[in-house]
Amino acid sequence: MQLYLIRHGQSYGNLKEWPHGNTDEGLTELGQEQAARLAAWLPAHLPHIDAFYASTMRRALETAAAVAKPYDVTVRPDDRLRELGNNRLDHTAWPNDALPPRYAEYWGNRPFAPTMEDAEGVESVMHARTRVGLFIEEIVERHRGEIVVAVCHGGVVECVFAHVFNVGPWSRCEVWAHNTAVTHFEYVDAPGARAAWRLHYHNRVEHLEGG
């Protein structure tokens, strides 16, 4: 299986001056341009897609809609691809119009503590890594030998790295992804392979050059 992870384009919630905390926002004008540039660039590098998944948050769905346009493929929304802190302890999604308002202080260094303040039953980093891991293991079984694209969030990309590289709770390296950056993993389903996963590249953004 070939897995391509795409971080969403810039959203209003990404802006440093955004005053409203953690809300479900769509793409900015720049984010829409980033998604359009990726949609124009990707088919030359990835002519065919078998399955296309996306987080159920607006910024990811809008990005996915743009990127999927050149392909004859249906976008499959999946709550497990939502950004960290936007699901509950049981992995179900918070309503997009009633998200936990703000991230807890130092949550990145407390993998078993709630990621959000002022909300009951908020997931921890480890809960988020579990739901993302469940998604990864499911698509490995469902899409053997196929090409899969998933539009998600920076925190989800980091969770995939933790899952694939078998990182413990206290990671020592942050994995950052630019808006609309592409990461390519391959699951090797072959006897005698040295490892199950191969990382081909991360944070590929040449579609944004000159923009």
Task: Provide a concise account of the structure shown.
With 211 residues, the chain is an alpha/beta fold. The protein contains four helices and eight strands. α2 (58-68) links the parallel β2 (51-54) and β3 (75-77).
Features:
18% strand, Rossmann fold, 8 strands, single chain, 211 residues, globular, two-stranded antiparallel ribbon, alpha/beta, 27% helix
Helix proportion range: 25-40%
Structural class: alpha/beta
Helix count, per DSSP? 4
Radius of gyration computed on alpha carbons: 17 Å
Low-confidence regions: none
Layout of strands and helices, then pairs:
Layout: E1 2-7, H1 29-45, E2 51-54, H2 58-68, E3 75-77, E4 102-103, E5 116-117, H3 125-142, E6 147-152, H4 154-164, E7 182-187, E8 197-204
Parallel strand pairs: 1-6, 2-3, 2-6
Antiparallel strand pairs: 1-7, 4-5, 7-8
Helix pairs in contact: 1-2, 3-4
What features would you describe in this structure?
The chain has a single domain, classed as Phosphoglycerate mutase-like (Rossmann fold), CATH 3.40.50.1240. The chain is 27% helix and 18% strand. It has helices at 29-45, 58-68, 125-142, 154-164, and strands at residues 2-7, 51-54, 75-77, 102-103, 116-117, 147-152, 182-187, 197-204. A six-stranded mixed β-sheet has the order 3-2-6-1-7-8, sandwiched between helices. The longest helix has 18 residues, at 125-142. 38% of the residues are buried. The model has no long low-confidence stretch (mean pLDDT 95).
